[in-house]
Amino acid sequence: MLRISSVENLRYPVSCSFHFTCLRTSTENDKTFSEKLANGPRFEDFLKDKKYDGKLKLEKGESGRLRLPPWLKTEIPIGKSYSNLKAQLRQLRLSTVCEEARCPNIGECWGGGSHGTATATIMLMGDTCTRGCRFCSVKTARVPPPLDAEEPVNTASAITDWGLDYVVLTSVDRDDLKDGGASHIASTVKELKKRSNILVECLVPDFRGNEDCVATIVNSNLDVYAHNIETVERLTPFVRDRRAQYRQSLAVLKAAKKLNPKLITKSSIMLGLGETDEEVEQTMRDLRDVGVDALTLGQYMQPTKRHLKVIEYVTPEKFKAWEKLGNELGFLYTASGPLVRSSYKAGEYFLTNILKQRKKSQRIDDQSSLETRTKDIV
Length: 378
Description:
Helices cover 37% and strands 10% of the residues. With 378 residues, the chain is of the alpha/beta class.
């Protein structure tokens, strides 16, 4: 998927699949990164009424659906930015996970919100998935259409022309392909790196646990390896496709870190499906145990009546508590909030600064090493 945004203004809601994110240099160059984060919007800013007396959780065996609490109500997609972005994506014949997955943030992201930050999410390898997770409304088929061999080059060319600084690529699952599409995704990353110094995050499938496929992605020279655990272990068989397994996802993230310890790894958890606090905490600990660096937690939203019902609407205060725990557990970055999705603008801004600092430090170390060797020779 492809997401476009600018770092001049940060906004909470983000996309949840393949996307390109543009993080442009802020015009307020005199401010430090910490100051910008501190002065940015907080979740309370999105709440029209902090006190809500409505029902937030279904009891066991209870039918019906919960009413949407005020902090999850979003505006109808309108505005010039929304219309322009939609027209541009149609012209490029790009599929968006924003539309396919019925993301509740589409109006906020495409419309740019009050800060004018436009965001879109595009999927690589088409709009049809081979899996049928019970939380996702992306269409499925046993054998989707064949891959577009020109997609890596065309996608990279488009992103380069847009002048993006940070890109997140994701895709549908393609179990019909021998390598699950790993080489196709890797080719797109290589094409991007060939054309610019853009930072690349890949939100990828589990490739059925095949470490060779994981290695293909890791060796593509990407900067952030993302794979979503989605939910707690107990609920995984009921929430995700039967081919997606909790321990398998952990193994994939562990393998990526083992292949390149310097690589930032990232995952995401949906809340509101009936999980307990103890299970969420255990999932967070499991992710840290396999070296995951960045974590996002967001509210599950039922895309259609055919999909899993929301069991509970988690309050912003509870999300804040999970963010605090994430920081205590040692994640480099924890994004936690009702409208947070697996891709998170402030998170990408934060990761961008980490990556740039790492690259800068590496250049300094390389220069120092070169100077030392030169002195030894002399």
